[in-house]
Amino acid sequence: MRKKVGFVFIVLVLITLAVLGNRYFNRSTDSNTYSGTIEGTEIPVQPELGGRIVELLVREGQVIKTGDIIAKLDDTQAKISLDIAKSQQTQAQAKLNDLLGGARVEEIRRLENVVTQAKANMAALEQSLKFEEDTLTIDQKLYESGAMSKQVVDAQQNKLATLKSQYQGAQAGVNVAQASLDQAQAGYTQPTIQAQKAAVDIAAQSVKTAELGLSKLTINSPASGQVLYQNVEFGQVVNPGTTLATILNPNDLWIKIYIPGAKLSQIKMGGTVSIVADSYPNKTFKGQIQYISNQSEFTPKNIQTKEERTTTVYAVKISITEGKDQLKAGMPADVTLE
Question: pTM of the predicted model, to two decimals?
């Protein structure tokens, strides 16, 4: 009797599994509803120049606006470069004024003083350059022995490169000053005046370049959103292109779903879909088909059963057009094709 009851029970279980399996098969093959996870566009904030972080003004979870300051890098050397560029611009303009007004004894004396001062500046920079070169040599040896980090060595290399640029600028300043003095003593011609006008223009562009370099040491947010990650710390030396922070754009939410090839004919670019998020089961939001992959792939492991992973599907990106103030990145959701 017990064996008969057990046999009946097994039969009932098999029938139940067959019915459920049939329902699942019909749902997975005929349904126009697909599951996915809401995602948001992540925007990395990266500096164009390197340097040491002297101010870090954001934290994870903070809501920021376009243009808000993310961080500031050490601008000491950049300010020196700007001062040098402005000084060279002043010298170039002064020389042009001399050419246009004609040389006077007083002007020749002034130019002689300018040459003397320019040579003194170059000599001072030469001493600083030698010191920084020696410092770099020591730092590299310490790095090779494991007693110093590579970030410190990189920072010293950047500092030395900037100083070399300043030294070259000082050399150019001496040459300009000496040329001005020579011209003042020899007298000026029209071609010389035209050449000096060009030199003034070049000096002005050098000032703009230095100002631009200085401005790039203040890193602003490229978009409004929420700080998802703070990728660096205060005092850290970063290289150009290092991600300082990652911003999540809440206004660019989307879902990626995977559709069998047999159903691609049911959708088109720009088509609308309905979206139901698990967090709002009684609400329906609208979305728009933004992208349909041209390349088939196997069903992702986290989407279907083991048997269905061998099915080839096409990725479809859905842009969420409604409910951006309610839907959040990370929410599971179902997409129904219309």
Answer: 0.52
